[in-house]
Amino acid sequence: IQLDSGVPQGMTQQVTQKVTQHLTGANYGDNIRLLNSMIQDHISDSCKPGKVGPVAVLEFWVQACTSQPLWHRDRTILYLMDHLCKAAFTYSQEDCVQKL
């Protein structure tokens, strides 16, 4: 990743713009549901032998969501957090989200 004074440059800038378009465009709701499905699969896959386990994955995604400015007011983040909380209880890892 190339940054110039904290601003993405080159390929990073292009990718960032494309991701932003997909998350805020006309298919916004569908894309968020797809992102949630990917996150849930990431959590499920982490439970397989030799993988990091659901705690690490849950903590990663909770951190990614809650590090966003005003995350507690963002409907997208709240949607993802709702599903992360459900997953945490499903995998008996509610401590991952109780820190909030």
Question: What report would you give on this structure?
Answer:
The chain has 100 residues and is mostly helical. It has a two-stranded antiparallel ribbon. A hairpin with a 2-residue loop joins strand 1 and strand 2.
Helices and strands in order, then pairings?
Blueprint: E1 3-4, E2 7-8, H1 10-24, H2 28-45, H3 54-66, H4 75-90, H5 95-98
Features:
100 residues, mainly alpha, two-stranded antiparallel sheet, 5 helices, globular, disordered N terminus
In a few lines, what is going on in this structure?
The chain has helices spanning 10-24, 28-45, 54-66, 75-90, 95-98; strands spanning 3-4, 7-8.
* Major β-sheet annotation: 2 strands, antiparallel
Helix content: 55-70%
Number of separate strands: 2
Shape: globular
Termini distance?
Answer: 30 Å
H/E element sequence = EEHHHHH
Give the radius of gyration: 15 Å
Average pLDDT confidence is 76
Structural category is: mainly alpha
Beta content: under 5%
**Count of DSSP helices?**
5
Strand order in the sheet with the most strands = 1-2
Low-confidence stretches: 1-8
